[in-house]
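Hi both,

Apologies for the delay on this - the queue was longer than expected. I finally got the 2-acetamido-2-deoxy-beta-D-glucopyranose-bound model through. Below you'll find the protein sequence and the ligand SMILES exactly as submitted, and right after that the structure tokens for the full complex including the ligand.
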Amino acid sequence: MRVSTLIAAAAGCAQAFVLPQTFLDAFQLSSGVDEQSFFWPHKPYFLKHEVDPESFPDDIELAELNSTAWDLYQIAGTSNRTYGHPTRVIGSEGHWNTLNYILRQFDEMRDYYEISTQSFKALNGKVYHYDLNYTNGAKVPTAQAFSLSPPAAPFVGKLVEIPNLGCTDADFEALTITEDSIALIERGECPFGKKSSLAGKHGFKAVVIYDNDPTSEKGVSGTLEKPTNHTVSTVGVSFAVGQELILGITLDPHFSLFYYMDSYVNEIETKNIIADTKHGDPENIVALGAHTDSVAAGPGINDDGSGTISLLAVAKHLSNYKINNKVRFAFWAAEEEGLVGSNYYAEHLTPEENLKMRLFMDYDMMASPNYQYQIYDANNIDNPRGSEELRDLYIDYYTEHGLNYTLIPFDGRSDYVGFIEHGIPGGGIAAGAEGKNTDNGKVLDRCYHELCDDVNNLNWEAFLTNTQLIAYSVARYADSLKGFPEREINATVTASSADIQYKYPYKGGANLLL
Ligand SMILES: *[C@@H]1O[C@H](CO)[C@@H](O)[C@H](O)[C@H]1NC(C)=O
Ligand SMILES: *[C@@H]1O[C@H](CO)[C@@H](O)[C@H](O)[C@H]1NC(C)=O
Ligand SMILES: *[C@@H]1O[C@H](CO)[C@@H](O)[C@H](O)[C@H]1NC(C)=O
Ligand SMILES: *[C@@H]1O[C@H](CO)[C@@H](O)[C@H](O)[C@H]1NC(C)=O
Ligand SMILES: *[C@@H]1O[C@H](CO)[C@@H](O)[C@H](O)[C@H]1NC(C)=O
Ligand SMILES: *[C@@H]1O[C@H](CO)[C@@H](O)[C@H](O)[C@H]1NC(C)=O
């Protein structure tokens, strides 16, 4: 199927598919790249069949999802030299090579897609090393560095328990700090970054945040987000360790810890990739997206390699068909840093561009190992009109295929936020993150945000089913938006982004982003 006689006839075109040398340099994977995949038969558009939503999902094959997953894992490995392990975090070789890989796939389909990239700035940081020790040299158990934590030169500091939750100046004002000190603060009420910044403002050199969940054995972790001038180096520990430290202070008013962190926080430039079909009604755009970046801890093959892979497969097969509405495939960067790429995109749409987008479908984490078929419980009361129709499309699909699904909160943990905040109907599906599977009580993705989120972390049944559902959603709306609500022209479309009251609790609260 891949190598057709059309190629032989069009041998003169082969030159056009040769990769630029700069790309080959950046993409250090020549051995893993199948030369034949650079060629794809291109039927003239007018000879293509109209896409049929019922049969189109059958075009998706497990083998192609598998082969792209292995490509992404190899690409994540290009970060080994600088990160010590595979990752596709923004700014890493693994992320840049992911973007190049996507661009290369679309380069093969440039008769069908118009490609653009959008640069924007995002924070990127790296913790090389940290120590939180008792003064006898023993390591404080469960300690984990927060991402985007600034560094701290080695010091021994007196540990001071902060009253309340360390979310207001008042919580710190009563304390007198006369020597190097470390603030001990309970998790809760306000973002981690706020606790860290307030502690720094009141003279603390570092912060230890302990979890408020007694059942969690791991140290609390997350991101400090955008640093202020006061943000100080911060680590998290478990609830139990927090209690031990409090006991230490109670028994010894001079109770101290050794603290050290080697890290940096940088603002870097990264990119979204947007691929629009050249055909289809440009006034009625069907948009869908996945994020190209992982967290620093691992290769992110489920999160969100899976969504990226699904979109690439659907885009490739769609190019064999005629469509009525324009389709926009979006590949967001810096989702893990706070939905930065998708928010930037949505905020920078002109009102005219905004109104052409009929809906946005979010595909983040499609193949969790202990999956459930999760559907965002979007509705037309709290969300732009049309969100509910999209939710019902997913419900009907799973139901017709005899599959159980669960509705999950549409509460701001992924890249749909920017769209619904700007009046564009949205929704999506997922296979599960750190939550528990309601059927068996076990965690949905045991490798969520960890090093083991590799190819072995994918559940193939969920991956195939969800990619076929993505194919269905695209074909269905690309074919016709009949019955799908028209866009409402209302305040949120035209308001400048500064005027928008973000109502989603997790926006920027990146600890809980998928
Ligand atoms: C995926 O591909 C690898 C390598 O070609 C193969 O070993 C594995 O069995 C495949 N997995 C599935 C689910 O097809
Ligand atoms: C990167 O390191 C991992 C082990 O952490 C290894 O499996 C992988 O093959 C390495 N990849 C490359 C491209 O060096
Ligand atoms: C802190 O603990 C780590 C881990 O046990 C150890 O390697 C390091 O030497 C300790 N540092 C100090 C200054 O005690
Ligand atoms: C932070 O520090 C920089 C440089 O010292 C200064 O220009 C800036 O105004 C400060 N920002 C705030 C919010 O205080
Ligand atoms: C704009 O749309 C939202 C979401 O559909 C709706 O809640 C709101 O009432 C609309 N505003 C106006 C001014 O029509
Ligand atoms: C769907 O859920 C029901 C009730 O939880 C269960 O009995 C059934 O086996 C499930 N079906 C599938 C296909 O998982």
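Main takeaway for now: The chain is about 30% helix and 20% strand.

I'll put the files on the shared drive as well.

H.
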